[in-house]
């Protein structure tokens, strides 16, 4: 019996709509996600993950196409911090076995900048552990930033702790492009993870950064025992502050910290959180930060359909995966690394 291979005149089936697609359509048209819808994303079933990622990826594609930006972290001063942030291996209450040293000399900071450039990073993140920078640390940053920018053409993100208005102005004057200062969690939960400074202190620093004319980089950590409402609150606060770059960390519960043993995140939890932040902050740079290798594991590629940025190499006191693995992941997705400053 012959088989008829002629084209069918029937109309191809139309993909059925779902709530995530409807919300994406609204966001893509300039609308906003509600807090109740954000909650529904975080409470969605694992069986809905692929539909959620697909909807979020449509938003990512509109604003960032197929580009991925790489960040390189330099722990310029390790440990010795007087704050009691419960998640941090460098805090005064941590017993974690980590290197402890004052701000590094110029040659080591320059060598790290060279590595950042060689690894395809667009942004070099200069980080110190401190409540805030002292005068010696401020001068070290002011001296090194112009040299790094001239020699390697990297964007500079400084993470120096709490800043005064005058310190923010000085960072702008020396060429710092953006300052990282994470909110870390929602305002109501903040007192449970830190008592030596407040959520309001962090918001004030971000306002100083904005008023100085630099970009704000601020995100948080998922998996510290917070509620869904705390995560939603953080996402909307970042939106209201107008933060340009949002790193989303997944708790790496380091032994010796008060949060050691907290390890209840699944890859699906991480994807839900990333998607919710993308919906709430559609045109903001969203970065998969610390803990991605530990918690997303084999689903890291799905994360990059939502986020448009990752750290390459190691983190502050924990190891990341080999840069070659990140490059391969990006190539396999058909994405392009953005390296040109200003893109």
Topology summary:
Blueprint: H1 19-28, H2 35-42, H3 49-64, E1 67-77, H4 106-118, E2 123-128, H5 135-152, E3 155-159, H6 165-174, E4 178-180, H7 190-193, H8 199-211, E5 215-217, E6 220-222, H9 228-241, E7 245-250, H10 267-280, E8 285-288, H11 292-295, H12 300-304, E9 309-311, H13 323-333, E10 336-338
Parallel strand pairs: 1-2, 1-9, 1-10, 2-3, 3-4, 4-5, 6-7, 7-8, 8-9
Helix pairs in contact: 1-3, 2-9, 2-10, 3-10, 4-5, 5-6, 6-8, 9-10
Q: What can you see in these coordinates?
A:
- Mean pLDDT is 91; it is low at 1-14.
- Helix 10 (267-280) links the parallel strand 7 (245-250) and strand 8.
- The radius of gyration is 21 Å and the shape is globular.
- The chain has one domain: Aldolase class I (TIM Barrel, Alpha-Beta Barrel), CATH 3.20.20.70.
- Strands 1, 2, 3, 4, 5, 6, 7, 8, 9 and 10 form a 10-stranded parallel β-sheet that branches.
- Helices cover 41% and strands 14% of the residues.
- It is of the alpha/beta class and 343 residues long.
- It has 13 helices and 10 strands.
- This is Biotin synthase.
- Its EC number is 2.8.1.6.
- It holds the Pfam family Radical_SAM.
- It catalyses: (4R,5S)-dethiobiotin + (sulfur carrier)-SH + 2 reduced [2Fe-2S]-[ferredoxin] + 2 S-adenosyl-L-methionine = (sulfur carrier)-H + biotin + 2 5'-deoxyadenosine + 2 L-methionine + 2 oxidized [2Fe-2S]-[ferredoxin].
- Catalyzes the conversion of dethiobiotin (DTB) to biotin by the insertion of a sulfur atom into dethiobiotin via a radical-based mechanism.
């Amino acid at each position: 019996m012959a088989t008829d291979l002629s084209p069918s005149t029937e109309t191809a089936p139309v993909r059925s709509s779902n709530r995530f697609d409807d919300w994406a359509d609204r966001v893509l048209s300039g609308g906003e996600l509600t807090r109740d819808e954000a909650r529904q994303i975080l409470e969605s079933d694992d069986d809905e993950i692929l539909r959620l990622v697909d909807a979020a990826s449509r938003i990512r594609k509109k604003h960032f196409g197929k580009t991925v930006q790489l960040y390189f972290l330099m722990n310029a001063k390790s440990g010795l911090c007087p704050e009691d942030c419960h998640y941090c291996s460098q805090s005064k209450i941590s017993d974690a076995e980590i290197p402890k040293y004052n701000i590094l000399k110029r040659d080591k900071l320059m060598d790290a900048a060279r590595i950042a450039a060689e690894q395809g990073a667009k942004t070099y993140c200069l980080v110190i552990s401190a409540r805030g920078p002292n005068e010696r640390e401020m001068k070290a940053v002011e001296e090194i930033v112009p040299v790094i920018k001239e020699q390697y053409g990297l964007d500079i993100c400084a993470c120096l702790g709490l800043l005064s208005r005058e310190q923010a102005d000085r960072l702008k004057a020396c060429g710092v492009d953006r300052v990282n200062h994470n909110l870390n969690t929602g305002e109501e939960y903040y007192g449970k993870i830190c008592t030596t400074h407040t959520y309001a202190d962090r918001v004030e620093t971000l306002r100083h950064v904005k008023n100085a004319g630099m970009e704000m980089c601020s995100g948080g950590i998922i998996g510290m025992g917070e509620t869904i409402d705390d995560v939603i609150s953080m996402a909307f606060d970042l939106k209201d502050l107008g933060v340009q770059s949002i790193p989303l960390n997944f708790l790496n519960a380091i032994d010796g910290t008060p949060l050691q043993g907290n390890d209840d995140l699944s890859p699906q939890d991480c994807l839900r959180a990333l998607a919710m932040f993308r919906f709430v902050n559609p045109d903001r740079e969203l970065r998969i930060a610390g803990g991605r290798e530990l918690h997303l594991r084999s689903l890291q590629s799905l994360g990059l359909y939502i986020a448009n940025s990752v750290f390459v190499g190691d983190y502050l006191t924990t190891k990341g995966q080999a840069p070659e693995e990140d490059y391969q992941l990006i190539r396999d997705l058909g994405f392009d690394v953005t390296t040109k400053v200003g893109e």
